[in-house]
Amino acid sequence: MLNLLDLTPTDAEFALREFAVAHGDAAYRGSQVMPHLWAKPVGSFGEMTDLPAAFRELLAAHFTLPRLALETEQQSTDGTRKFLFRMHDGQAIETVAIPDGERMTFCISSQAGCALQCSFCATGAMGFARNLAVHEIAGQVRELALLNPPIRATNIVFMGMGEPMMNWKAVTDVLTVLNDPKGCGIGARHITVSTVGILPGIVALGERKEQFRLALSIHAPSDDLRQKLMPVNTKYPLADVIDAAAEFARRVTFEYVMLGGVNDQAHHADQLAALARRCKAFVNLIPLHPGGALGFTPTSPEAIAKFARKIRNSGVEVAIRKSRGIDIAAACGQLRVERQRRRPPASPEHDREVDVA
Ligand code: SAH
User: Fold this and answer.
1) Cα 230–202–81 angle (5° rounding)?
2) Which of 35, 112, 133, 267 is surrounded by the fewest CB atoms within 10 Å?
3) What is the pLDDT of residues 295-330, one digit of tens each?
4) Which of 95, 194, 323 to mutate to test ligand 1, by most ligand atoms within 8 A of the CB atom?
5) What is the dihedral of CA 40, 45, 50, 54, to 10 degrees?
6) Which distant-in-sequence residues (6+ apart) come within 8 Å of 256 by Cβ?
7) Residues with Cβ < 8 Å from 218, sequence gap 6 or more?
8) Which residues are catalytic?
9) CA 344, 348, 354, 357 torsion: positive or negative?
């Protein structure tokens, strides 16, 4: 049995056309399956009603279209929705759908857990379980399109659980699935890969000819401080990450979580602005979601605004990320952590959600 959802659209179509011919059908019968995989997905071969029943049965005997089990959903008053999917081996992953005007951004997971242990991140605290397969990453987008009514992504950010560049082999195929007109057909400029700065991954993304976007989790403007917040800085020091960003073919976004009293002082703004100027980066300041971050406090909105002004005044483009879904714990890893602790979500007063792109 061949899993069609682990293949790029080109490979899936090739296999399907060969299969059709091998079974005495015209090759185009195979191509007819394609829209049902990603663009207008259906849950099973039986539902591909534009195909003859006999051919659907043949397909079901030779190929699989694995589903992800939707275990929990939470909806915020502002429309943000968060989903917990259970994998076949019991691992759980999160996906968040964030509506914003005409846009619908999906924040998707690339690993179950994460090995990187950034000190403020809930996913880091749970440790690493395993890489997700292509069909488990792209499948998050497919599953939401299978809901009734469907939710269709216009934008994708790899800002859910995990480090996408540590699962590049799958992620590069997922990018193809998401972008290919025979896949989900989402424009490359609407797809953002976020990384702590895994250098080989940055290079590999830059080598893709499509205009996929790169976001870099910087979070500290000096090695000393970054080391304390992000252990990965030992392997990939800040200077190397900045060099890679400067060499990256396209415009890069810096992500910077504002940690009260830690990385939010005036001199940090100056240092950060200097780094951003070097690689012409756009800076995204992110209000801390306290849920995942024992021992940290959020910077006040006023202090974030001041920090932003300082950066803007030195000629760097900067935005403060909107907090959304304040009544559901939608930040990285929080739903899964919550279920493991069997605690109800924090109250709206104490719970601020991290919004994306
Ligand atoms: N591993 C990749 C992709 C995961 S997304 C990366 O780190 O870039 C990670 C993003 O989630 C980080 O950039 C950070 O902005 C955000 N994040 C994690 N924990 C957070 C928290 N407690 N509050 C706000 N943002 C958080």
Assistant:
1) 70
2) 267
3) 899 999 999 999 999 999 999 999 999 877 656 766
4) 194
5) 170
6) 218, 219, 263, 272, 283, 284, 285, 286
7) 197, 226, 238, 241, 254, 255, 256, 272, 275
8) 94, 332
9) positive
pLDDT digits (tens, 9 = 90+) for 231-241: 999 999 999 99
Rounded distance from Cα 81 to ligand 1 centre (Å):
18
Does any ligand 1 atom lie closer than 6 A to the CB of residue 195?
Answer: yes
Give the Å distance between the CA of 44 and the centre of ligand 1.
35
188: tokens are 């490359």
For the 2-64 domain, the top CATH level (class) is mainly alpha
Tens of pLDDT, residue by residue over 162-211, are 999 999 999 999 999 999 999 999 999 999 999 999 999 999 999 999 99
For 269-295, the pLDDT digits (tens) are: 999 999 999 999 999 999 998 776 688
331 lines ligand 1 (CB under 6 A): yes
Does residue 258's CB lie within 6 angstroms of at least one atom of ligand 1?
Answer: no
The per-residue pLDDT for 294 is 80
For the chain, domain boundaries: 2-64, 69-339
Distance CA(166)–CA(56), nearest Å, equals 37
User: What pTM, to 2 d.p., does this model score?
Assistant: 0.93
**Which residues, other chains included, contact 341 with Cβ-Cβ below 8 Å and sequence gap of 6+?**
none
